[in-house]
Design a protein that fits this description.
By secondary structure, this protein is mainly alpha-helical. Helices cover about 40% and strands about 0% of the residues.
Length: about 100
């Protein structure tokens, strides 16, 4: 009985440079990435995220819709109420120092 020929015996394990074909070159699309963020940060404004229970988020959406507003404005009203409890307001804190 003779030995079976090796399947991997003739493999070359050294990488070869990729060969470009005319068809492959025709399908090349150059992609340029921009480093600019989607939005520029506003001076004097700090971004903050909230994790809310789904039911609370739905209720805020509902309140905003019924009052022709948006969630941000509703949340800002709540923050202003808390600040008022402690003797200040958003308007006082954001007044320009002119």
């Amino acid at each position: 009985m003779t030995k079976r020929p090796s399947v991997i015996g003739n493999l070359s394990l050294t990488p070869s440079p990729p060969q470009a074909t005319a068809a492959a070159a025709a399908n090349v699309v150059e992609i340029t990435a921009t480093a600019e963020p989607k939005r520029q940060p506003k001076p004097g404004v700090k971004h903050t995220s909230l994790y809310l229970p789904a039911a609370v988020d739905r209720k805020l959406k509902e309140i905003a819709l019924t009052h022709d507003s948006n969630r941000h404005d509703i949340i800002m009203q709540g923050i202003d109420l808390i600040l008022a409890r402690y003797g200040t307001s958003i308007a006082k804190l954001t007044k320009p120092n002119a």
